[in-house]
Amino acid sequence: MPRVNYRSSDVDLMARMMRAEAEGEGQQGMLYVGNVIVNRLVANCLDFKDIRLIRQVIFQVQGGNYSFEAVQKGNVFYQRSRTSERRLAKQNLDYWRDHPAKYALWYFNPHAPCPPTWYGQPKSGQFKEHCFYEPKPGTCDSVYSG
Fold first, then answer.
1. What confidence score (pLDDT) does residue 84 get?
2. Whether this model's pTM surpasses 0.90
3. What pLDDT score does 104 carry?
4. Directed axis angle between helix 26-42 and helix 83-94, to 10°?
5. What is the Cα–Cα distance from 125 to 101, expressed in whole angstroms?
6. d(CA 35, CA 104)
7. Across-strand partners of 65?
């Protein structure tokens, strides 16, 4: 049983985002971005309350900006997805999760060392240039069960 319900258009959209956000970090980096996307869909809390579709995760606006920079600056995001990225996206949607993004709801590339917290949320780890952050204990328990 997949982690979330999805359609083939969701796989394509997610694959494009994974590539746009982490192509330079290889397949592993793209899988971590995929973890965050699925986690945001599973987590019915904080900034992700009432989000039920991959499309809503990808095109979410927070503070007047898209949550994912690639939507706004997206020369790669607006290209067609490739078979390899669609396969990775399907892995995320069906079952794949791993540390440091296993429960992460946020990531960013600080172009410097990762701060221990980001907007008050603890760092769960780092992969190459991306720092990953999961919710503080007790603030979003649904992300740990989904």
1. 97
2. yes
3. 98
4. 40
5. 8
6. 7
7. 62
